[in-house]
Structures are given as structure tokens and as C-alpha cells.
Amino acid sequence: MLVVMKPNATPEQIAAVEERIRSLGLAPHAIPGAQRVAIGITGNRGALDPALFSEMAGVADAIRVSQPFKLVSREVKDEDTVLDVGGVKLGGKALCVIAGPCAVESKAQILEAAHAVKKSGARMLRGGAFKPRTSPYEFQGLGEEGLKLLALAREETGLKVVTEVLDPEDLAPCAEYADVLQVGARNMQNFALLKRLGGVKKPVLLKRGPAATLREWLMAAEYVVAHGNYQVALCERGIRTFETMTRNTLDLNAVPVLKALTHLPVVVDPSHGIGLRRHVPAMARAGVAAGADGLIVEVHPCPEKALSDGQQSLSFEEFDGLMAQVRVIAGAVGRPA
Amino acid sequence: MFVAMKPHAAEAEFEAVVERIRTLGLTPHPITGTERRVVAVIGDTSGVDPEDFAGMPGVAEAMRVSQPFKLVSREVREEDTLLDVGGAMIGGPAICVMAGPCSVESREQILEAARAVKRAGATFLRGGAYKPRTSPYDFQGLREEGLKLLALAREETGLKVVTEVMNTETVPMVAAYADVLQVGARNMQNYSLLERLGEVDKPVLLKRGLSGTIKEWLMAAEYIVAKGNPRVALCERGIRTFETMTRNTLDINAVPVLKSLTHLPVIVDPSHGIGIRKHVPAIARAAVAAGADGLIVEVHPRPEKALSDGHQSLTPAEFEGLMRQVRVIAAAIERPLAG
Fold this sequence. Notes:
The complex is a heterodimer of chains A (337) and B (339).
Chain A: E1 2-5, H1 11-23, E2 27-32, E3 37-42, H2 51-54, E4 59-63, E5 83-85, E6 88-90, E7 96-100, H3 107-120, E8 124-126, H4 144-157, E9 160-164, H5 171-177, E10 180-183, H6 191-198, E11 204-207, H7 214-226, E12 232-236, H8 254-261, E13 266-268, H9 270-274, H10 280-290, E14 294-298, H11 316-332
Helix pairs in contact in A: 3-4, 3-11, 6-7, 10-11
Chain B: E1 2-5, H1 11-23, E2 27-32, E3 37-42, H2 50-54, E4 59-63, E5 83-85, E6 88-90, E7 96-100, H3 107-120, E8 124-126, H4 144-157, E9 160-164, H5 171-177, E10 180-183, H6 191-197, E11 204-207, H7 214-226, E12 232-236, H8 254-261, E13 266-268, H9 270-274, H10 280-290, E14 294-298, H11 316-332
Parallel strand pairs in B: 7-8, 7-14, 8-9, 9-10, 10-11, 11-12, 12-13, 13-14
Antiparallel strand pairs in B: 1-3, 1-4, 2-3, 5-6
Helix pairs in contact in B: 3-4, 3-11, 6-7, 10-11
């Protein structure tokens, strides 16, 4: 249920509606819009009677939300959510590019990568300190040491830091150092982690699970938002299909479909989406042309020596070329990059 | 295996290579490029040493093709294949747009659609006369009557006609009317049909099967080319995945991957690829940005009354909007629109 307040509703009238919701044992979620406030209701098992609210002072309408995801739905909030990451915007008109190595490997590596991607026009730095590797024998990341190196790179370059949090246990250090907390594809339905992220005051970049439907993904985002953190962006990174020539199948259909269903920003990861270095720029162009709000791209000073994902990481020069191409497409769809 | 001739190899030298291949019990398959002539060797070449050819006069090199698809591979022919369909091009720098209804339904419908898509900038008219419908109780197409209406629309508008051929028996009939013969997704591995199309003097638009891997799809194209018809274009139209919110999952990854593996033109079908009318333009933009050589789009004068695929067909006005957006993306990657 969504209670839509009149444009001129007073704070007292809004508070009264919230109180009525609480008195029913439910949770109110006030969502301020440009025109008016809407209050989402969660916690009800069956449908609520709109008459509970529609006659209250300041209420314009009380409507049922038809989708199973409520707070992330465009039915509840029409305007795009724009995440403000210390002045860098994710969502909204400008295209936001996040770039950096798969994993933080050393001080020299991350600093070199940060300077290079910044020079090419990235606004945020990616880099994993806690790595979810398929094999337990492979490099698992530098842990907290990696986080410190990311913070150092931020200090030097001004780039905001996006890094993955693997486990509720690592949440505290990750939240301390990172500007955006990434939930990896394998953790999309790690509900314990999602709930904990709902209590954090840092934006969350939620990657799509390799076998997750759009609805399941939006429900995962709903977990974070329902637990109190409204700063969520979605990241399409390819799904598992029968095709084996590419690492994943980048589902760009997801971009326009999500933009219609949710107000959350949509980011595309062409690196994991195709998994082949030489084809990453083409898919980055396609992601932007389809309407993505941002890109996250793997870049490494020396891809052939990378400890992970070297086959899909771009060299600095290749990334510079990608940015030039992406800028042209962004311009064509009316977005500054 | 293929044998590449030197750019100025003499005709007699070329003939000698062809003859040597024949004496080995293999089939020579000459491919003429703008730079040089290549002879693909079809058959079991495991016992043949490429060096035997490399030493012949006029031969630049002889080597095994590492991919299982040979004639459609870029290893064999580096330059892009351009299909010249009576002056309308598929492939090359210009992006071609094919548009029209899912099915030919009536004379008025197809003429109205043809005029509208022509005005918006399409150079090919699509329209099914033989329809592969999931249910045997659904509209199956107007058959020969539909083909005649397509030919009429071509006469009126000058658009070239792309239409599906569903089985071997109807190949001569469809080929008599159509400019491009489409193989539908469900027929991608109908090998008798593919072989038959290898003998036809009309270009073929080969759609990707719902569960066809890129390699299987290229092998299907190889069937047509190996049987003698080199004029093939590929059409990505979405694959079957676990996602149900969209009709198919358009695999745009296939575009850059195919462009590097094969010299054949790559067309994208955003209508089937996403299956939701309002999202067709976004995914058409994405396909062009990824490097597709063309688009095939479903357009109907009145989608809500269409006998098939109405939910994914654009109105003429929506199609005009799509064309405007596609033109901007094409310009951004420095490609003109055909026509």
C-alpha cells in the first residue's frame, strides 16, 4: 500500500499517517518526491483497506502497489533516485563511469590504476579487497590491507571507492573505508547480508545474480531498502545461459525494463557481461545506448599479469579508447559523460 | 583447409590448385575477395599436408582453418561480405533497416505498412506469408496470396521483400516472389532446408535458434554456403533463458563476437529480442551501438489488431521515433543508414 500525500500536506499530517501505520503494527517509509511525499507501507500480510488512510487529512490517495517489490517500484516513487556519493552522482542525467582492477594487488598497482582511470574520465574507482573466487586456492584478496590502499588511492585522486563486501563480518571495515558497498553476483540473495546493508549509511551497488530473474533482483534490492537504506543502485553483469563463447550473457533487455519498473539507478558491467577484453568497448557502447546510468569496467595496469580477470581487463590505453567511444554514445542519447 | 592465391596469380595457376584438390577426392570452393582469391578445401583433409599446396606456383599460403566453420570464417575471408539485393545493400558501412508486420494480413495492411516504413527510412519490407506459429490453431499466414501481396508492395514502394520460408517444398514458390529468404529461429538447424537454400540464387537471412550457440549458428550458415550459396546474413533475435519478464533475452554479446569470427553481415531483431513494444527502441539503439549491420523491426498499422506479435509491433509513428534514435546512434559510430 502507498499513501500519497497532497502537495501541500503539513508535516503534522504526514506524521499522523505514519502514526496510524505504526499503530497497525506496520512500517511506514516516507519517500519525499519533487511534488509531494508518498508513504510506503510494508509488513502487511494481506491487502490493506485504502479507506484506513484515504479519509485522513492531507492524504490525496491510498493505492495498492501491484508489484511484489514496493519501495523500489516506480509506482511508489516516480522520480529517478540519484545517489550522491560525496558529490559524485550516480543516476540522473550524467553518465557515471566506475573503473579499476578486479582486485587490489599492491600499492603501486592500485595507485597507477586510479590515476589512469581518473585521467580517462572515471568518477569512481573499483577494486576488490575481499574476493569471491570460484576456487578456494586462488588469490582471495588483500583484505583490510586492500581497503587501506583503496582509501589511499581516493586521497591521491579524489575518486570515490566502490568495493565488494562479501560477508556481514567484513561489513564494518568495508563501510569504514568504502564510499559504495558492492554486493557481488553470488551474494545477490544473501539475505543476511542484504538486511545488514539496510542498516548502513553507505550506498549499495547490487549486482544481479548469475541465475536471477529481474523480479528476484528487485526483491533483493527491496530487502536493503525495506531495512532502511534507500541508496541502492542495480548492476547488470550478465546471466548464465547455454552460450559458452562468452563468459556470461549480458542481458541488456534488463536496462529498459528496469528503468520502467524501478526508480533506482542501473549500471552495466560490460567486463563480466562478455568477459572478452577486445569486445568490452562494444558492449559498453551498447549499455549506454540502451539507457544505462553508469558503467563499471575492469582496468589493470598490466592485464596479462593480473591476479584475477586479466582476460577481461582493459589496459589504460584500451580504457581511454572505451571512454572516447562511450562519450560519443552518451552524447547521442543526450547524457553528459 | 584453405589455399590462398597470390594477388596476381594466373588463372592457370588457380586452375591447377582446383584440379589438385579434386584429384585428392576433395571439393574445391573458390572464394573471390577484393585482394585475392582463396580456395577452401571441403572434405576430410586430415591426410593432406598444406605444404603440398604451399609449394605450388601462384599460391601465397595454405593452412588449416582452426574453427569448425570454414567458409563463413574470417580466417578464410577477411573482408566483410556485402549482400547486394537488387541495389539495396545488407552489410558494409551503411546500416540497413528491415521493417514491416509480423504477418501479411491483407492488401491494405501490407501496403499501408510498406508505405509507412519506407517513409521512415527502411529499405526492406518484412512480412510473413508462411508463419511458424506455436499453436496450430493460430493464424498460419496467407501463403501464396501473401507472397503476391508482398510483391505488390515491392512494386509500389521499391522496398525489397524479406519473407520466411518454412520448408523445402515451398522454397521455389517463396524464392519466386521474395528478395531475401528468411530462415526462422525454429528452423535454424533444419538441415534439409539449409541445404536446399544452398542451391538457391537468393540471399538468406538466417535467424539464430532459440537455444543455438554462436558456434552452432555459424555451422548452420556454413551448411548454406558449403552447398553453394555464399549470400547469407545472420540475425540475432534473442535466446531462451530463465528470464520470463521479456519474451527472449537478446544476446547483444553475439554482435561483436560474430563480427570478429565471421565476414557475414549481422542483423539484430529487437522486436523478438525483448518482445515488449515500448522497449524496442532502446534495445535497437543498443544493437546499433554494439556494431550490428542492420535491424529487422516489426511494424503494424494497428498493432492492437495484429493477428500475430501485436504486443511487440510498433505503430508507424513509434517506428519513425525509433528511426530517429537509431540514426543518431549510427551517426555517433560514424555509420550512415542505408537508403
